[in-house]
Amino acid sequence: RRLFFDTHALVRLLEENGFTTQQSEVIVSALVKIMNTNLDMIYKDMVTKVQQEIALQQVMSHIGGVKKDMIILEKSEFSALRSENEKIKLELQQIKKQVMDEITKVRADNKLNLNLEKTRVKELVSFGYFLPETSKPSHAQQDRALTQTDRKIDTEVADLKTMLETHKLDNIKYLAGSVFTCLTVALGFYRLW
After folding, report:
1. CA gyration radius for the chain?
2. What are phi and psi of 130, to 5 degrees?
3. pLDDT number for residue 42
4. Residues 6+ apart with CB under 8 A from 141
5. Does 32 share its domain with 66?
6. How confident is the model at residue 132 (pLDDT cuts 50, 70, 90)?
7. Which GO terms describe its biological process (predicted)?
8. Does residue 68 belong to any structural domain of this protein?
9. 8 A C-beta contact, residue 83 and residue 133
10. Closest of 180, 183, 175 to residue 95, by C-alpha
């Protein structure tokens, strides 16, 4: 072990100040023992360069393992997110198809009802049920019957438009919720990364 001061010079200094050679050597050897004991205590808490490099390599390997795990987790989570997004798209397409089928069905029902109503009005007009006192209906009565039919048609069309708007708003809400959910999950992964 190296000492960072000259022990012989210290012995001479002590001799010059009134100590004997034997006393000076004992004092210097006691100081050397104290310093060695202190250095041993300090060295127990210290790490050598080799130990430090080994610890650094261990930490770097742990970091590399964590990075690999994060990449695997990210890929699996993004694939799960993609599959969930595809599932939502399929559900949205099914709902859209159901809505279109329902609209077609309502349109067909309305057309059928309108045709039946027109036929009924024509039969009433042809049989003269609008004017009980005369055999033929007047032009005003025919206009009144057509106006009532037009009102019914307008009412049915308005109901159909209202229903279409309701389904459209429901689809938009569902789509917006799906998009915001996907964005929230993606931002969560981005923040974790």
Report:
1. 49
2. -80, -30
3. 81
4. 125, 130, 131
5. no
6. very low
7. calcium import into the mitochondrion; positive regulation of mitochondrial calcium ion concentration
8. yes
9. no
10. 175
72, 77, 83, 89 alpha-carbon torsion, rounded to 10°: -140
> Does pLDDT of 54 surpass 50?
yes
Query: For residue 136, is it within any domain?
Result: no
Sequence-distant (≥ 6) Cβ neighbours of residue 102 within 8 angstroms:
167
- Kindly report which listed range (20-34, 121-135, 137-151) carries the lowest average pLDDT score: 121-135
The answer to whether residues 28 and 11 touch, using CB atoms and an 8 Å cutoff, is yes
Strands (E), the chain: none
Same domain for 73 and 121? yes
Q: How far is CA 52 from CA 1, 44, 49, 61, 187, in A?
A: 22, 14, 5, 14, 38
Cβ count within 10 A of residue 165: 10
Same domain for 79 and 149, yes or no, is: no
Cα 96 from Cα 105, distance rounded (Å): 14
DSSP code for 132: S
Tokens linked to 137: 């209906």
> Average pLDDT, stretch 74-93?
84
pLDDT band (50, 70, 90) for residue 2: low
Q: Are residues 7 and 79 in the same domain?
A: no
Kindly report the pTM of this predicted structure: 0.33
Full domain range(s) for residue 9: 1-46
Show Cβ contacts of residue 156 under 8 Å, excluding neighbours closer than 6 positions: 110, 113, 114
Does a structural domain hold residue 5?
Answer: yes
